[in-house]
Design brief:
The complex is a heterotrimer of chains A (294), B (475) and C (317). Chain A is built from 14 helices and no strands. With 294 residues, chain A is an all-alpha fold. Chain B has two domains: 60-168 and 345-400, 3-Layer(aba) Sandwich (D-Maltodextrin-Binding Protein, domain 2), CATH 3.40.190; 170-343 and 442-472, D-Maltodextrin-Binding Protein, domain 2 (3-Layer(aba) Sandwich). In chain B, the strands form two sheets. In chain B, strands 6, 7, 8, 9, 10, 11 and 13 form a seven-stranded mixed sheet that branches. The longest helix of chain B is centred in the first third of the chain and has 32 residues, at 2-33. Classes of the chains: A mainly alpha (294), B alpha/beta (475), C mainly alpha (317). Chains in contact: A-B, A-C, B-C. Chains A and C meet through helix 1, helix 4, helix 5, helix 6 and helix 8 of A and helix 1, helix 3, helix 4, helix 5 and helix 8 of C.
């Protein structure tokens, strides 16, 4: 973005501006470096604890670096912590939920953004209103419904089906905002060609909001990944445990082996982190591209 | 065209994934429905069984919920498998639940009528659950003449036992022998006759508290903000505070658990003395009474010379610490006016929602027998035995205590058998209702006492009505 | 005349056709809309609103888990506001925490986003680092923080003591607890940073340059250009942050247990304790309902006042 230097400004003030910008950038970089280090501190603390022996952990003064880097802690942890089983179980829940949640969020968001129908405002405010409720409030009535009413105890269904109903109001809201920023002219062009609303959705809207869909998928992934309370309540058998439950079980051990608990914690970070790093390209691009007006 | 293909592909994969989810979910659903059908497990075929089953070869399936980590779950299932192999009428499956959500899950299951047959429960909830009729009657679990659990380990509601603790966990004093040697102080005694009075205890702690310049609180120039070694750490988890109130002649409640005595001057003074270890005597670190890792934090970490806590620590962290160089010893608790220690232990219960109470009781009785839990829990020092024979019969005591986990046999016997038999009292939750809410409220109320913002007297008296309500079951 | 009449007829039929097409289209739209919304509608009613109504009804009963519910009118609500030892403090603490955290997160994420918006090396890496806390499972992360905050042996106190300042009892001092927990909550707001970043990149550079040429310094540019252009996004983040922080429960669950005293007894945590530990379901439902009203009031206030300070660049709603 070259700027135009107007006549009466001299070249030196332009230079001045560049200098100021460079200094500003330099200062920003330093501040960010310090802040990033501060942000990483708790995470580093967990990681370094996973590589220490238990007595070292509580030592005074606290050590920033482990004395001996006990990577063996990880192999020992993996012998007891059934990472792969938990991973597979968690994926069994996450994959259908994320797909179902994204599809239904797109459908619902599209309806709110583009289609005209009676009661639109009312249903939309109901939608937004449901975000105000913490999920645990409805946990008990829902639990009774799923187990006594529908007989689905010991299955993953109570954890998956709710996501097929729009994936949560937050995601519907997000998709709606994204679709609102796509110019209506594209729609109109297609409808003149005789396309119905569903065709417009699939052929025009969906490709345009692909990044937003990936964002929704990521958010759903992280939510389900970390959802301890619901998963504990609905899952009974050890072979069905998911990764958060596994981690919680690991912490319940009588032997309070903190170093290994930290190992298990670090191991459970990894998949979420990987998925984020893969998807983050779309994530920021997506939000940047379409913006989040109103 | 390409787009529709893409959409179709997406839909197809969704359906496939749903199918796999349904299959894995479905099989679980069908197996839970198949509870009544016969299983093809390898069962030891007994020649005869005295109990006449209802003329069917079906195994009664009993579920047992427990908390603990992977290791405990595995060990318990192994014990359950032993039971399953020893007879062919009952089959037990374990349902491990993480500790932090244990009560939540049990409560939810209770509401939805989905409780397992048996479970280990946390002590605080037992009487309350008995009151709600959730526990089955187990008064005929032990016949007369059989070795029975110690009386202090029976949870009683309306005069009848509703549960027995699965282990006898008492409180005692653990200390670091090396720190005592270095300071030239004699070890605390394992003989109850020579137990420390409170003042003696504080004096010894002072000799063992060092600031970064090596000074003790008795020396001039002692820097209380830079202590590197503490003389003691008295665990102030709310339920453990009761022993100090009892020791000072009072207690949380009256002897029958009906009247509140937490506001007695003696009880209040006891609690204040614990707080003063940090605030006034400067021999203890600040402890919030909120987390249950007292021993690792203090003795194992090498930052304290003495600490009071439960016997299970011998197995859960002290043995491992000893292997890594911690030279620790066992002693009896100090006392204020009366010598006392309290016992506790999560009970195994049979839920009244169970359809097979007789078989459930049989399972629990077998499970509580020490021989069936020997290697994993008794020998390692995590559980202390519950049957009275282990405390009265010298041969059995030797069998239990004369093993590496317990270190010196004479000390262990003096503290864990003699002291226990003479001075052990049940913690109040064995016979008092609503202890969960009361303890939670008390812990909350005392929060600012530990930091010295208010005195124990103020805290308790300001909140007396609320504490009374909690005890009455209204809060 | 006839030709005129014909033209009029043709025009009319054309109009009618247009209207018909329009109404046919709008009917089609409405039908599609309802079709699309079926899953959301089922979810909203079955999973959210019907249980919510159930919760409201249960709040008028005394229900202790497995025993049968007993009707007791407004007693639960009366007890809540008069004799409950936790509730009044809980409300205050929740509001206090939310305000501190929301303001703190807004400032923090906006500042970091603005710094990240400049041309500096390793931007991608920074983005990952700042977003990291958001992905990690919260309960696990709190253990790490509890060690940093530990009174006697934690890192923060160690650093403070080395400088010569007396240690702070982060989680044990009732006046320090909420700020300490707020710090953790602010640390976790990587998601807000990313959204702000996107918003910043949408502020047209031409505005800034024009202002600079006219002699505005960076603060003036910030207040008069950046903030107004970003106001819809600030609003969005504000609402999301407020709702999330009022519902906070994990710090109390994992770290403080509501203490010391009642200084971190957040309302959702209180609900949780009554419902799942104490098994007083009817009472917990009454707390839930009161909580719902409070949070709705805050949200409505925010929405109502928003019209005055949000500047929409295009009116496309």
């Amino acid at each position: 973005m070259k700027d135009k230097v107007t006549g009466h400004k001299s070249a030196s003030s332009y230079q001045g501006r560049i200098m100021r910008e460079r200094i500003g950038n330099g200062a920003s970089f330093v501040i960010l470096l310090v802040m990033a280090a501060a942000v990483m501190l708790p995470i580093w603390w967990i990681f370094r604890s996973s590589l220490m022996s238990n007595t070292e952990l509580y030592a005074w003064p606290p050590a920033f670096f482990p004395g001996r880097w006990l990577f063996s802690n990880y192999t020992e942890t993996l012998q007891v912590f059934k990472l792969w089983l938990y991973l597979a179980n968690t994926m069994t829940i996450i994959v259908p939920s994320v797909i179902g949640g994204t599809i239904t969020a797109v459908l619902s968001g599209y309806a709110f953004a583009r289609l005209r129908f009676g009661g639109k405002r009312f249903i939309f405010s109901l939608c937004v209103g449901s975000m105000l409720l913490p999920t645990m409030v409805t946990l008990i009535p829902l639990y009774i419904m799923w187990t006594r009413g529908l007989g689905l105890s010991n299955t993953y269904w109570p954890l998956i089906i709710p996501y097929f109903c729009g994936g949560g109001a937050f995601n519907i809201f997000l998709i709606r905002q994204f679709i609102c920023t796509i110019p209506r002219e594209l729609d109109e062009a297609a409808s003149i060609d005789g396309a119905g609303p569903l065709r417009i959705l699939f052929s025009i809207i969906v490709p345009a909001i692909k990044p937003a869909m990936i964002v929704v998928g990521l958010l759903l992934f992280i939510t389900i990944w970390n959802d301890l309370l619901q998963q504990t309540i609905y899952i009974n058998r050890p072979e069905d445990f998911t990764i958060v439950i596994g981690l919680s079980m690991f912490r319940s051990g009588l032997k309070a082996d903190w170093a290994k608990i930290m190992c298990a914690t670090c191991l459970s970070f990894v998949p979420g982190l990987l998925i984020y790093m893969v998807g983050q390209k779309y994530f920021v691009e997506g939000i940047v591209m379409t913006g989040l007006k109103n | 065209m390409k787009k529709t293909k893409k959409v179709l592909a997406m839909l197809l994969s969704t359906v496939m994934l749903l199918g796999t989810a349904a299959c894995s979910g479905g099989t679980s659903a069908t197996t839970s429905v198949e509870a009544g059908k016969t299983d093809t497990t390898t069962a030891a075929v007994e020649a005869t069984t005295s109990a006449a089953a209802e003329g069917s070869t079906e195994k009664v399936k009993i579920s047992y919920a427990l908390w603990g980590g992977e290791e405990e779950a595995k060990n318990t299932q192994a014990v359950a498998d032993k039971f399953n192999a020893s007879q062919d009428r009952i089959e037990v499956t374990c349902i491990p639940i993480p500790w932090e959500t244990y009560l939540e899950k049990l409560n939810t299951m209770a509401t939805a009528n989905e409780l397992p047959d048996t479970a280990i429960m946390s002590e605080a909830g037992v009487i309350s659950w008995a009151e709600q009729g959730l526990l089955a009657d187990i008064s005929n679990m032990y016949a007369d003449g059989e070795a029975k659990p110690l009386d202090s380990l029976a949870f009683k509601y309306e005069g009848k036992p509703v549960a027995y603790s699965v282990a006898n966990e008492t409180l005692q004093l653990f200390y670091n022998k090396d720190m005592f040697d270095k300071a030239g102080v004699a070890y605390p005694s394992s003989d109850a006759a020579k137990a420390y009075t409170w003042d003696e205890f504080v004096a010894v702690a002072k000799q063992l508290t060092l600031d970064k310049n090596g000074l003790t609180p008795n020396d001039a120039g002692f820097d209380k903000d830079n202590i590197v070694q503490y003389g003691c750490m008295v665990e102030n988890l709310t339920w453990q505070l009761e022993v100090w109130c009892l020791s000072n002649g009072s207690g949380f409640y009256s002897a029958d658990g009906q009247t509140l005595t937490i506001n007695d001057p003696a009880a209040v003074e006891a609690i204040q003395r614990i707080a003063d270890l940090y605030l006034v005597d400067h021999v203890a670190p600040l402890s919030s009474g909120m987390t249950d890792d007292g021993v690792p934090r203090s003795l194992v970490a090498g930052t304290c010379a003495m600490t009071t806590n439960g016997a299970w620590n011998i197995g859960t962290c002290l043995s491992a610490a000893r292997d890594e160089g911690l030279n620790y010893g066992l002693a009896v608790l100090p006392y204020m006016m009366d010598k006392v220690t309290i016992c506790t232990g999560g009970p195994n219960v049979v839920f009244s929602q169970s359809k097979h109470p007789a078989e459930a009781m049989e399972w629990l009785k077998w499970y509580s027998k020490e021989e069936n839990n020997w290697d994993g829990l008794i020998a390692t020092g995590i559980w202390m035995p519950i049957l009275d024979s282990y405390y009265t019969d010298e041969a059995m005591t030797k069998k239990w205590l004369d093993n590496p986990a317990y270190g010196d046999y004479a000390d262990a016997k003096a503290v864990l058998v003699d002291y226990v038999m003479e001075y052990e009292k049940s913690a109040s939750w064995y016979y008092t209702n609503n202890t969960m809410d009361f303890n939670a409220l008390l812990g909350s109320v005392l929060g600012d006492v530990w930091t010295g913002k208010i005195t124990a007297e103020q805290a308790i008296n300001d909140n007396l009505q609320a504490l009374q309500d909690a005890h009455d079951g209204m809060a | 005349m006839e030709v005129q009449k014909e033209i009029k007829e043709i025009k009319e039929t054309k109009e009618i056709k247009e209207i018909k097409k329009h109404s046919k289209r709008s009917k089609q739209e409405a039908k599609t809309a309802y079709l699309c919304l079926i899953p959301a509608f089922i979810g909203l009613s079955v999973i959210t609103y019907i249980p919510l109504i159930a919760v409201f009804i249960i709040s008028f009963f005394k229900w202790k888990g497995a025993s049968a519910p007993v009707f007791n009118g407004f007693d639960n609500y009366i007890r809540l506001f008069t004799t409950d030892p936790y509730f009044m403090d809980s409300m205050k603490v929740t509001v206090y925490f939310s305000i501190v955290t929301v303001i703190g997160s807004m400032i923090y994420s906006l500042a970091i986003a603005m710094l990240l918006n400049r041309r500096i090396p390793a931007r991608g890496l920074f983005r990952v680092i700042f977003y990291l806390p958001y992905i990690l499972p919260a309960a696990a992360v709190y253990i790490g923080w509890s060690w940093l905050y530990e009174n006697n042996f934690g890192v923060f106190n160690y650093v403070l003591k080395s400088i010569g300042i007396k240690g702070i009892m982060f989680l044990n001092d009732s006046s320090a607890v909420v700020p300490s927990l707020a710090l953790i909550a602010i640390w976790l707001t990587g998601n807000l940073i990313v959204i702000f970043l996107a918003g910043l990149q949408n502020v047209p550079r031409s505005y800034h340059e024009a202002a600079e040429i006219d002699g505005a310094n960076s603060w003036q540019r910030f207040v008069n250009i950046t903030l107004p252009c970003m106001s819809p996004i600030i609003f969005y983040n504000l609402i999301m942050s407020l709702i999330a922080n009022m519902q906070i429960v994990t710090p109390a669950l994992a770290l403080t247990g509501g203490g010391p005293g009642n200084s971190s007894m957040f309302m959702t945590y209180l609900m949780y304790r009554y419902a799942f530990k104490s098994n007083q379901i009817g009472y917990a439902c009454s707390i839930s309902f009161v909580f719902f009203i409070i949070i709705a009031v805050f949200t409505v206030i925010l929405f109502a006042t928003s019209k005055s300070w949000i500047f929409y660049e295009e009116a496309d709603n």
